[in-house]
TrEMBL record:
InterPro entries assigned: Cyt_b561_bac/Ni-Hgenase, Cytochrome_b561_oxidase, Di-haem_cyt_TM
Major subcellular site: membrane
SUPFAM superfamilies, A to Z: Transmembrane di-heme cytochromes
Entry membrane topology: Multi-pass membrane protein
Similarity annotation: Belongs to the cytochrome b561 family.
Named cofactor requirement(s): heme b
Record-given protein name: Cytochrome b
Source organism superkingdom: Bacteria
Subcellular location as annotated: Cell membrane
Record's keyword annotation contains Cell membrane: yes
Key words, A-Z: Cell membrane, Electron transport, Heme, Iron, Membrane, Metal-binding, Signal, Transmembrane, Transmembrane helix, Transport
Endpoints of the signal sequence: 1-22
Domain Cytochrome b561 bacterial/Ni-hydrogenase: from-to ranges: 147-319
Amino acid sequence: MGVLQRVLLALVSLAICQSAAAVEALQISERQPGNSESWVALSIVLASGLTAWFLNHNAPRVRVFGSILAAFGCLSIAAWFLLYVLGTGFLENPKPNQTPLDSAKPVLLWIQAIISLLAGVALLSVAFKQSKATDNLALGAANEADRYGRVSRVLHWTTALLFLALIPMGIFASIIPEGTAYRLEYYVVHKTIGVIVLALVVFRLFWNRKSPRPALDASLSARERKLAHAAHISLYAMMILIPVSGFVMTSFHGAPTFFFAWELEPLWGFSKTGTIVWGMMHKYLLPYLLYIVLGAHILGALKHQLIDKHKSAFKRMVS
Ligand code: HEM
Ligand code: HEM
């Protein structure tokens, strides 16, 4: 074969490889047929909303069903990690680390899976105890002086379930190696639910103005009162800052924000500095702050109920 023929053959092979790579990239960035990932996102949102509604239903039997659904949600996260994520091998061979903090991700996922497993089992035992209760819950939509009304409760638990699910989902999405076929699907579900959380929080802030929140529980000491107040304000701030920083990071990265089947194109041009700064917020600063504040919030609520034995404490937000 002459030199010219060899060069031509090399060019043709290169062109074939290039177009194959382009087609592969197209397939990777393509949405699933029938937008199945949007249906997954919708199912998670509806299941969380229904669980939150059932948890605060008038009828005791429906409340039991709500606790079983909540247990099922926690156990599903644990099963997803133990049966699926571990099987992918991505924990040992993740996308290359961007910062040394990324090496903590497998440990974080393990901790979250174990907490989900324990929470699922605890909720099943709560459901068993609830199954003996016969009292109807007389509750209006508006907040009362000493307890939250139905709208605030359903908003709190829907947001809490979605928010808690987004954390392991976001961590796993960020370790899936580039080029893995279903990487985009995780981003679609994560971003769609993130946008819904933001919308729910905005609605919740409007609702708080219309129906003032109850004063903090009278059984709290002055110090606990200060801590609970600070935790609530910080959680509201996180529920706004985390999705907003995700959106800004995504836009600086030049990627669209997905909302079910719709795609909101970036609102401004690509910027490496912008991606790094907002990525630091969304991926490191805010999640680590969140672990502290949310840990204090949940442990505080459990201490109030299980150690201090203030029986009315949880009942202000769920019955
Ligand atoms: C599954 C774990 C959770 C438990 C057990 C829990 C429990 C509670 C309880 C009992 C209250 C009422 C406090 C009171 O009586 O004054 C409350 C309020 C609140 N929770 Fe949670 N919560 C959880 C998860 C979350 C999550 C994930 C978030 C947000 C990211 C959150 C944000 C809030 C906020 C902002 C309030 C204050 C509500 C207001 O006054 O408007 N919670 N939580
Ligand atoms: C309440 C809402 C949200 C929560 C709690 C949340 C939480 C998280 C967490 C914990 C991570 C893992 C970060 C890491 O360890 O690297 C993550 C990653 C990510 N989030 Fe969110 N997020 C939310 C909303 C959003 C929104 C609205 C968007 C975009 C519109 C978004 C885009 C992303 C992207 C692109 C990643 C992956 C970054 C990477 O590949 O390194 N998030 N999110």
